[in-house]
Amino acid sequence: MPPYAIEVDGLTKRFGDFTAVDNISFRVRRGEIFGFLGPNGAGKSTTIRMLCGLMESSAGRATVGGFDIKTQTFKIKQSIGYMSQKFSLYEDLTVEENIRFYGGIYGLAPARIAERMRWVVEMAGLAGRERSLTGELSGGWKQRLALGCAVIHEPPIVFLDEPTSGVDPVSRRNFWELINQLSGHGVTVLVTTHYLDEAEYCNNIMLINAGRIVASGGPKELKERHITSAMLEVQTADPVAAMDALKGEPWVRDLTLFGIHLHAGVDEAVDGSRRIREALASRGMAVDRIEHITPSLEDVFIHLLSEHRDGG
Q: Do 178 and 79 have their domain in common?
């Protein structure tokens, strides 16, 4: 059996003069969680739709589970699970009616549907709610039910397109526990997200912007490769003014606002802390706290997007 569940080579999608996906290539190993990250409009959903056989590519080639996306779309659809960005279940059906419906779509026998229904209900935490209308469920329950329906036929490859969009942080974390369980059973998961903290759960990540691959690798590898400076978190009364004050300093390598804090990349943490305090003090700004922190994937992504915009 080939080691790769998904292989993509030069995949491109054009809509008239607009190129949504621009000559991308990557491979996903069997059983891994592969994170496809980028801002809205980066080309993530378009790529997934091409790989799932829902949209024709303009150029390039790709295989999913060994099947060609141009000539074997029917076999691909039979062998994958797909959870779309938009909630896809029927809200006027009950929980068990949705499960039966999707089991039927995937061609499962009635006895097998009954068996898998028990698994979906348990996995989604919906015991006792089988006859509840799906539209009455909370966002987290709907999300887990949608995942259960997407994998009711036990596919070896699952595509999840922005699966945690619009749900609370606790539900997001619980959902990722389910993804890890699938991966632990050998299922290959390709997930798109714009939540950078979720990327920490992935074995490998690909960052995409404006249809082009910006970087790829494991979370730790990306941080070590692209953030070579010491990262300091600076807390001041006015982080925007502090950012403006530090922008022109030649010893500042990266500078980004993170909520109410400022992240500054410098060559060396102790010397950088001293320079920041002195630079802000000279402008009448007090520093409440400076802490040497481990760079986050958000730091990496912002750094790479800045380089991408500048043509670096």
A: yes
CATH number for the domain spanning 264: value is 3.30.70.270
Q: Which residue has the tokens 């915009």?
A: 309
**pLDDT digits 0-9 by tens, 146-170:** 999 999 999 999 999 888 877 778 8
Residues 35 and 178 placed together within one structural domain of the fold:
yes
Distance, CA of 186 to CA of 203 (rounded, Å): 13
Q: Which residues neighbour 288 within 8 Å (Cβ) at sequence distance 6 or greater?
A: 235, 236, 237
pTM: 0.83
Q: How many residues does the chain have?
A: 312
d(CA 218, CA 308): 20
Q: Are 170 and 24 members of one domain?
A: yes
Q: What is the pairing mode between strands 188-193 and 157-161?
A: parallel
- Helices (runs of H) and strands (runs of E) counted in the chain: 10, 14
Of 217, 237, 270, the residue at which a domain comes to its end is: 217
**Same domain for 116 and 248:** no
Q: Long-range contacts: 92-95, Cβ < 8 Å, 24+?
A: 92/133, 92/134, 92/135, 93/133, 93/134, 94/130, 94/131, 94/132, 94/133, 94/134, 95/121, 95/126, 95/129, 95/130, 95/131, 95/132, 95/134, 95/137, 95/145
Residues 56, 115: Cα–Cα separation, whole Å:
36
Here the tokens at position 296 are 């986050």
Q: Which domain holds residue 101?
A: 4-217
Backbone angles phi, psi at 275, to 5 degrees: -65, -40
27-86 pLDDT, tens digit each: 999 999 999 988 888 999 999 999 999 999 999 999 999 999 999 999 999 899 999 866
Q: Do the beta carbons of residue 273 and residue 264 sit within 8 Å?
A: no
Number of folded domains in the chain?
2
**Are 119 and 247 contained in the same domain?**
no
For residue 169, what is the domain's CATH number?
Answer: 3.40.50.300
